[in-house]
Amino acid sequence: MAIGNLYFIAAIAVVGGGLFGFDISSMSAIIETDAYLCYFNQAPVTYDDDGKKVCQGPSASVQGGITASMAGGSWLGSLLSGFISDRLGRRTAIQIGSVIWCIGSIIVCASQNIPMLIVGRIINGLSVGICSAQVPVYISEIAPPTKRGRVVGLQQWAITWGILIMFYLSYGCSFIKGTAAFRIPWGLQMIPAVLLFLGMLLLPESPRWLARKDRWEECHAVLTLVHGHGDPNSPFVQREYEEIKSMCEFERQNADVSYLELFKPNMLNRTHVGIFVQIWSQLTGMNVMMYYITYVFAMAGLKGNNNLISSSIQYVINVCMTVPALLYGDRWGRRPTFLIGSLFMMIWMYINAGLMASYGHPAPKGGLNGVEAESWVIHGAPSKAVIASTYLFVASYAVSFGPASWVYPPELFPLRVRGKATALCTSANWAFNFALSYFVPPAFVNIQWKVYILFGVFCTAMFLHIFFFFPETTGKTLEEVEAIFTDPNGIPYIGTPAWKTKNEYSRGAHIEEVGYEDDKKVAGGQTIHQEVTATPDKIA
User: With respect to CATH, is domain 6-44+53-207+256-469 assigned 3.20.20.150?
Assistant: First the structure.
């Protein structure tokens, strides 16, 4: 018997997000340790004044490739996930991702050289790509509109917990002598994937996917279980069921879709919005802070354990500041969350650039401690200000783009394309994650503090882009969002202007509570649902 508690369902499913978090800090906490630097060393070994061996580890470009390999695999995995999910189901796709993660983790744990490490991380990336694309789809299709932001946003919270747990686990293991310092944490990261696979056996399939496969009794049973608390005659269950039925009826008139469908005129704008919310989430520079924070803090004068402990504080901030977004994100709305977040991130990036430029100076040739990417030095009070601004940047991201960038894409698309559309959007995230992971270490070498200027400009551009093109989806059913993009009175091929769309949280909460809008209830507990989108004359 499947479990119908929405928060239990989300808590199990978002472990798939936790896998991404484990991968991030499995590298960021390790790359400064002696065990890692010496085992994967590519430069001549030297000795300090005390006779201690000094290893430089992989070169900046190779380290970028090692870090980026996971994102490269995630890009491919996210694209494949659309086919897997549409054919086998959302739940099965997530389980496949968990099995692939275990395979990749075994290879990473047993790595004998850099190529083997890269192969293992690519396989891990396939898993992360599948789970990061399909967990939000699964949860968004099972959650009511007023709770969708909260429960889908749990994916980001799981990522932050994964980062934090793995960082402290890796930090603890860093005191172990030899290669066990990194092999133990790389092996232990299999445990969440095993729990995810087993946990998904207890959860129901997406009711919208079941409907699309003409499994109507199962669809109604899942809606009753999750939304009706066992009451098949619940007004809200009936409303959701009829809404799904109406949309599927229209979609039967259309052939099965390919990725090309997403670039047709009636889909192009929402595809552009969905892709760019994922691109911007990378171009904020957040994952640079996640992967390479030890480099940044080393340039700010922190060394050894002080560097690792100070780096871990940003992961704690990331976990804590995600909570307000989960609790209140649906009330705030998507647009204000994105706009305010990008504004504050822009401010902190420009402050860091100004501090580095005004008070810093180039590091000795070859970088600090022989690490090329640690190419700039700043000391004293300005260095503390850089660290503080970095923490504030992380807080700004965690409360805004962190959860919202996962919630938003599945809300934009109709059922017939949602699996592939979300997969495509997520693949854009991973493509840019790959590019940034690979190029940031060489960028620190070549343009130094100007990296902060670059990300500040990106944050400025995203603020303007969001204001003019990202519509509000909060409180609307997935079917009602369709009406925004197909508004016959709106801008051709765009729909209702983004700045005119409103937060419908209050209306959605009322419908969820009583099952109908005021004065639309009819006898027998049924509702008259005025279908906004599922008529051929309203969809180009």
Answer: no
